[in-house]
Amino acid sequence: xxxxxxxxxxxxxxxxxxxxxLDLIDRAAPYPFAEPIAHPSSPILVGRAKHLMDFHxxxxxxxxxxxxxxxxxxxxxxxxxxxxxxxxxxxxxxxGDTGEGAPIGQGGDRVARLAAGGTIAAVDAVMxxxxxxxxxxxxxxxxxxxxxxGMGFCIYSNAVIAARVAQRVHGAERVLILDWDVHHGNGTQxxxxxxxxxxxxxxxxxxxxxxxxxxxxxxxxxxxxxxxVNIPLPAGTGNAGYRVVYEKLVDPIARQFDPDxxxxxxxxxxSVFDPxxxxxxTLAGFRAMTVAMMTIADACCAGRLVVTQEGGYAPQYAxxxxxxxxxxxxxxxxxxxPIGDPYGERAETQPASVEVGLDAAHAIDRxxxxxxxxxxxxxxxx
Length: 382
Prior knowledge:
Elements: E1 7-10, E2 24-25, E3 29-30, H1 43-55, E4 63-64, H2 72-75, H3 81-92, E5 96-97, E6 99-100, E7 103-104, H4 108-127, E8 133-136, E9 150-151, H5 158-168, E10 175-179, H6 186-191, E11 198-205, E12 228-233, H7 238-257, E13 261-266, H8 283-300, E14 305-309, H9 318-330, H10 346-349, H11 351-354, H12 358-371
Parallel strand pairs: 1-4, 1-8, 6-9, 8-14, 10-11, 10-13, 11-12, 13-14
Antiparallel strand pairs: 2-3, 5-7
Helix pairs in contact: 1-9, 4-5, 7-8, 7-12, 8-9
């Protein structure tokens, strides 16, 4: 873009009050240890990301966008009235599980609505031209939430609702949702399973969570066939494998779809330190994925890009990944050096950062074979 890129930031201290409680065995009982074990979806993950963005001068170069509290009308663009009532009831008492592994504490409904509303506010700002791109640093996350239940730490489907707002309020005809969270975005897939106006692309660890979702041959149905693009990858794929995925699959498919808006469901749980997955991405990998999506947005939709926070559970590393994404969106200030990778030199010398393993190559080949039915793609992953 010729002029300086204007990037918005949605963040609110109330996100840090989302109470997921203790980690439970089979979602039923606390561990029997003397010291309590906190739920992995901790407020420190988002809080530390914002701390790093402040510390490195990233946040001060972003335009603050206040979140809204999503209304019943907005949430009903995907969720059922019965589910909204259930979440409200839990919120008004002592909290509890909104479905399958998606707990809230007392008052949690308002925070979850603020997360959905934060992503909506980011989309509003981008679609009206107030900013070119925006980062919604929100919690709780959203991409597992189904129409009638919460799931996998997610209460409301933030990206789904924001995409529908972009279409119905701002007239976007085609929306691309790219999900790089290491777990499959089953809620997003379910929302647009038969819808050709939303292209859903998911890069995730193969059959990790939820089991049975995100197989390479899950491509949508009816008019939506071909507009769900699942790219399941083996553990350890790393920066090198993801780079090939973007070059051979994400970039050409996205450009052919030619979206009016891009939303990234950005989970930083594919990192080399994450306790819930094994994908070995480093800060350089997250920066490269961000650059790739910025490049596609510049080519297709005047740079209109919204990044909304999903997972990422390494308390010492995920915040650095999120901050690196924000820094990449904004660009480096005069004389500034990039945020350093806490993993050190090993981040760029580990095998997953420099070479594509055979398992990853085979997975990319399988995805190419399926997606070639719907898109013009090269024959080999290279």
